[in-house]
Write a structure and sequence with these properties.
Helices cover 46% and strands 23% of the residues. α1 runs antiparallel to α4 and α7 packs parallel to α9. The chain has 2 domains: 226 residues, no CATH class; 255 residues, EAL domain (TIM Barrel, Alpha-Beta Barrel), CATH 3.20.20. The chain is of the alpha/beta class and 536 residues long. It contains 15 helices and 20 strands. Bound molecules: ligand C2E and calcium ion (2 copies). One calcium ion (CA) binds next to β17.
């Protein structure tokens, strides 16, 4: 219906509407949070990822070692079982031959001995001249499988062997057979029995600590070591590394994550600064004001120049900011018009007028309130429908709301005519505001029917000055009267001006001589006092 209405710009409704210092404080807080959260996360995750990576590495070694140790043990047990099954004459040539062969073919076994009554009778190395004690059983694994720690058969005092007993045979196993996998330098690896007995290891492991780890009495956070455990049957594989490794790994992770977090922090801070600039820009502030409905209306009385009776008031918008300061309309109306926010402001002014004055308008049917329209309201009179509804809801006559339009809004004559005609049909009086200050005053006056003409203050100011323009006001008054329009003189400040206008039959005056614009409550008081005085 109003194709010209697309000049209205959509306004953002996402702004944080706080006053300036609160917005800045909030922005600084957000920026600090925006930096500290990503950086803290980066530090935290560097630690977590490093710990996980080290744990995974240790677990891998422990599992590999366990597989290796289990295979060695299986081989050894298998060999002893075969020997037992052969049922050869103990320590016979065939028996010795078989034991020798078993030692050669079984990688994990270094020597096999046959014993009876707790004493070694012979071994893969031959007959034993004087039977020797087999040693103490220190650990029993399966029913027939026992272990002991034995001295090396070669007599190396610092080199202990694992003795594995199965019935009458004992295999001697070099402990390294249980843990012979390739390791990183900083890792210690051990194979132990589940009671903590150390079977074999690489990298000089601390036996006390290993014993604790094997039996679960050692907690990760206890000491200077990280460890991983893998378990199968009676065997436990434990991989250990110094905690310092974790620091090195964490530093590596930080090299990746901290720059990333700084990038995120920079984006967040950039976003905050961008939003802040938008918010603190005049347009950003005005958008927030519209969203938060920070406007209120002051009323400037319009009086009859003849009787002094107050016949109405002009509604003049004020922007009261959250900090309580008041901004004059000429400081923000141009920006509101430029940005398209003005139509929302007009709506809010109309709502405020009805809210402030509906009781007064009902009580005093001769009272009117004049509301200013912007060029965009005139081009696109959506406000008329809602104004009608709201006035009806509040039982206020449409007639009591005057609409003031300046010729700045008269670019599209068809749209203007449509708006003015619709408004007048609805019962409103339409006034032409700031008359004479534009370029085309006379041209459109002929074509458009309006009810009142407001003579601009600049012409009133010339009264009594003898300036060349001072006669223009007479012509304006003549034009208005010839078109049967009510005249309202704006900006009347002196008795001389009032006297002059009264002598020229100008009907109404508005200006500081009578009263300045005032808050609703003051205007109600002013009006009631004026009624008492002028109506007797
Ligand atoms: P205007 O419509 O011509 O309003 C009259 C202005 O003249 C008001 O200023 C009023 O306070 C001031 N005025 C009245 N009598 C005197 C006087 O004797 N001496 C002097 N020096 N000034 C006087 P205000 O309230 O600052 O408004 C300025 C302009 O802002 C208005 O001029 C109008 O164009 C615009 N405006 C105000 N309220 C609204 C509104 O609700 N909507 C729109 N679109 N514009 C508005
Ligand atoms: Ca006005
Ligand atoms: Ca005016």
């Amino acid at each position: 219906m109003f194709p010209q209405c697309n000049f209205l710009r959509k306004t953002s409704t996402t702004g944080i509407s706080l006053n300036r210092s609160r917005v800045i404080l909030l922005a600084v807080t957000l920026a600090v949070i925006g930096i500290s959260i990503p950086v803290s996360f980066a530090l935290y995750f560097s630690n977590v990822r490093a710990a996980q990576a080290e744990q995974d590495r240790l677990s891998l070694f422990a599992r590999q070692a366990l597989l290796r140790a289990s295979a060695s043990l299986r081989d050894a047990v298998g060999t002893l079982r075969v020997l037992e099954r052969e049922e050869l004459v103990p320590c016979s040539a065939a028996h010795l031959q078989k034991m020798r062969l078993a030692v050669i073919t079984t990688r994990s076994i270094d020597d096999i001995a046959y014993f009876k009554d707790g004493r070694v009778q012979c071994s893969s190395m031959g007959e034993v001249e004087a039977p020797i004690s087999v040693g103490r059983t220190e650990y029993t694994a399966a029913k027939d499988l026992h272990f002991s720690l034995s001295p090396s058969p070669l007599g190396e005092s610092d080199h202990r062997m694992i003795g594995m007993f199965y019935n009458a045979h004992k295999a001697l196993i070099n402990p390294v057979r249980f843990a012979d996998i390739l390791l990183d330098d900083d890792i210690q690896l051990v194979i132990a029995l589940s009671d903590g007995t150390l079977l074999g290891g690489i990298g000089n492991p601390d036996a006390g600590m290993i014993g604790k780890i094997a039996t679960w009495t050692y907690r990760q956070k206890d000491g200077d070591f990280l460890h991983a455990r893998a378990e199968q049957g009676d065997l436990v594989a434990i991989a250990v590394e110094p905690r310092d490794r974790l620091i090195v790994r964490t530093q590596h992770e930080m090299l990746l994550l901290v720059p990333l977090s700084l990038l995120i922090a920079a984006l967040i801070v950039g976003g905050v600064v961008w939003r802040l600039r938008r918010h603190l820009s005049p347009l950003g502030e005005l958008k927030s004001a519209v969203k938060r409905r920070e406007f209120l209306v002051h009323y400037q009385p319009i009086v009859s120049l003849k009787t002094g009776e107050c016949v109405g008031a002009e509604a003049l918008v004020r922007w009261q900011r959250a900090d309580g300061s008041m901004t004059r309309p000429d400081l923000f109306i141009p920006l509101a018009e430029e940005s398209g926010l003005i139509t929302q402001i007009t709506q809010q002014v109309m709502d405020l007028v009805i809210h402030d004055m509906h009781l007064m308008l009902k009580k005093y049917p001769r009272l009117h309130i004049a509301v200013n329209l912007s060029a965009q309201d005139i081009q696109c009179p959506h406000f008329l429908g809602s104004l009608k509804t709201k006035l009806e809801e509040n039982c206020v006559s449409q007639r009591q709301i005057w609409l003031e339009a300046t010729e700045r809004g008269f670019m599209n004559v068809d749209a203007v005519r449509h708006t003015i005609e619709t408004a007048r049909k609805q019962g409103h009086s339409v006034a032409i505001d700031d008359f004479g200050t534009g370029y085309s005053s006379l041209a459109y006056l002929q074509g458009l029917r309006m009810d009142a003409l407001k003579i601009d203050k600049s012409f009133i100011d010339t009264i009594g000055t003898g300036a060349a323009t001072s006669t223009v006001i007479d012509h304006i008054i003549d034009i208005a009267q010839s078109l049967d329009m009510v005249t309202v003189a704006e900006g009347v400040e002196t008795h001389e001006q009032a006297e002059y206008l009264r002598a020229r039959d100008v009907k109404y005056g508005q200006g500081w001589l009578f009263a300045k614009a005032m808050p609703p409550r003051d205007f109600i008081g002013f009006y009631q006092a004026n009624q008492l005085r002028t109506q007797g």
